[in-house]
């Protein structure tokens, strides 16, 4: 406990770090406040309540702003959608590939395209949001055309403001701003989920609640292990004698993460899981099979739903890993820089070796990621309330763990730069102080 208190004291004794943490807290408070400001012309008492399905997932990310019909009703999600589109374009379109290789100037252009695309996506999603999620009786404004137009403008402005908040957190605060906004929305639902679970259990089942919290702790630890797991490939650089100095000869490594795809496979798979029920609903009145498919794939506890969900996650994990990590480029960069893997010939043999290692570590990572994704279904089957079961896995838990670890690593880097050892004594975060080969 003394070490923990000492760590907190060391953190706030660094003026720059203290200001960044306070800035982050302030920006997050503004974001949470905006999620409770309802759109003009809506009676909040007549809203439908918590959203379900894909809307429920969005509502979790936005901390209830989606179901509250707030000015931040779409939040940062259109920006994330635009970022995913631009990321895929950098793989498929040569023009965006060239921009990505141009350094800072190329990244600035890609960011500009992302922001413009965010506006168009927000306009399109705003129309769907107003027509599909807000009940007609909740709209108290007489002029529906004016209400729709003004609400779309407000939602777009709210998304742009959330995007600005995220950039300010990254620039003036601590951690990745966009990820922090999503994480705070998820964390804000946790106290209500705990209270709902406690009320459902009652005093007579207090031991079961304790066991559920213990199980949640071990699930979180397993996700931390998945997030931090790295396969290190040793790299040796040849020595070069220039005049009286010797360059190179260092032994470094290439870190290949077991879960290199992160949370993206779950997001992609989740977006496709609503297609079977949506398509089946078209013929639900005329076909018993369509009605069965719609019912089955609308129930996230059914084995058919979870089997398809897990399969899609495994496929998307391999797909996303393949488009984000290029073994051929890594092998070529190593060859140009005079690096080689001991026992492996430079060039094509090195690329094939890296590709083989990447395939072997991606399979168990994909299987474990699929298991984490369907854990809420098992928790719900075991009697856990729907709100609390969402924290036993899935996108929410992976985002929380990833963002918290990234933020802690940034704080630790400040402590290391200022020669404070408080956090280091409390437990060093893996992979911060060793040489990494830049491919």
UniProtKB/TrEMBL annotation:
Membrane topology: Multi-pass membrane protein
Classification via Pfam families: SecY (PF00344)
Residue ranges of the TM segments: 21-39, 76-96, 116-134, 146-166, 178-196, 208-230, 260-283, 303-325, 357-379, 391-408
Location relative to the cell: Cell membrane; Membrane
Gene3D superfamilies: SecY subunit domain
Keyword set, alphabetical order: Cell membrane, Membrane, Protein transport, Translocation, Transmembrane, Transmembrane helix, Transport
Entries under SUPFAM superfamilies matching the protein: Preprotein translocase SecY subunit (SSF103491)
NCBIfam families given in the database record: 3a0501s007 (TIGR00967)
Family matches, as HAMAP family: SecY
Role according to the record: The central subunit of the protein translocation channel SecYEG. Consists of two halves formed by TMs 1-5 and 6-10. These two domains form a lateral gate at the front which open onto the bilayer between TMs 2 and 7, and are clamped together by SecE at the back. The channel is closed by both a pore ring composed of hydrophobic SecY resides and a short helix (helix 2A) on the extracellular side of the membrane which forms a plug. The plug probably moves laterally to allow the channel to open. The ring and the pore may move independently.
Sequence similarity: Belongs to the SecY/SEC61-alpha family.
Quaternary structure (record): Component of the Sec protein translocase complex. Heterotrimer consisting of SecY, SecE and SecG subunits. The heterotrimers can form oligomers, although 1 heterotrimer is thought to be able to translocate proteins. Interacts with the ribosome. Interacts with SecDF, and other proteins may be involved. Interacts with SecA.
Full protein name: Protein translocase subunit SecY
Organism from which the protein derives: Imperialibacter roseus
């Amino acid at each position: 406990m003394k070490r923990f208190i000492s760590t907190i004291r060391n953190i706030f004794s660094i003026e720059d770090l203290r200001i960044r943490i306070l800035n982050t807290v302030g920006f997050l408070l503004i974001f949470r406040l905006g999620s409770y400001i309802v759109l003009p012309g809506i009676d909040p008492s007549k809203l439908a309540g918590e959203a379900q399905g894909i809307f429920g997932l969005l509502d979790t990310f936005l901390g209830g702003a989606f179901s509250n019909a707030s000015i931040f009703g779409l939040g940062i999600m259109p920006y994330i959608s635009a970022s995913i589109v631009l990321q895929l374009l950098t793989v498929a379109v040569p023009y965006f590939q060239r921009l990505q290789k141009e350094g800072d100037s190329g990244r600035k252009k890609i960011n500009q395209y992302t922001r413009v695309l965010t506006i168009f996506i927000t306009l399109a999603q705003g129309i769907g949001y107003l027509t599909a999620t807000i009940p007609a009786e909740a709209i108290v404004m007489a002029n529906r055309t004016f209400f729709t137009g003004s609400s779309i403008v407000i939602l777009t402005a709210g998304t742009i403001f959330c995007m600005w908040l995220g950039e300010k957190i990254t620039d003036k605060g601590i951690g990745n701003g966009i990820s922090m906004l999503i994480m705070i929305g998820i964390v804000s639902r946790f106290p209500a989920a705990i209270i709902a679970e406690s009320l459902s259990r009652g005093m007579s089942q207090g031991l079961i609640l304790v066991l559920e919290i213990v199980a949640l702790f071990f699930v979180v630890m397993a996700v931390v292990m998945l997030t931090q797991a790295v396969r290190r490939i040793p790299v040796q650089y040849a020595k070069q004698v220039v005049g009286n100095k010797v360059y190179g000869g260092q032994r470094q490594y290439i870190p290949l993460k077991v879960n290199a795809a992160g949370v993206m496979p779950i997001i992609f798979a989740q977006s496709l899981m609503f297609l079977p029920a949506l398509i089946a609903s078209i013929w639900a009145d005329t076909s018993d099979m369509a009605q069965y498919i719609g019912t089955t794939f609308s129930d996230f506890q059914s084995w058919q739903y979870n089997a398809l969900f897990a399969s899609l996650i495994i496929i998307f994990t391999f797909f996303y890993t393949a488009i984000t990590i290029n073994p051929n480029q890594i092998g070529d960069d190593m060859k140009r820089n005079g690096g080689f893997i001991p026992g492996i010939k430079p060039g094509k043999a090195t690329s094939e070796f890296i590709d083989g290692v990447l395939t072997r570590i991606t399979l168990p990572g994909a299987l474990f990621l699929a298991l984490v994704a369907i854990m809420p279904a098992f928790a719900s089957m075991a009697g856990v309330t729907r709100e609390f079961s969402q924290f036993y896995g899935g996108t929410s838990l992976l985002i929380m763990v990833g963002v918290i670890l990234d933020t802690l690593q940034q704080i630790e880097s400040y402590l290391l730069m200022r020669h404070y050892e408080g956090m280091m004594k409390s437990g060093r975060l893996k992979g911060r102080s060793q040489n990494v080969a830049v491919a």
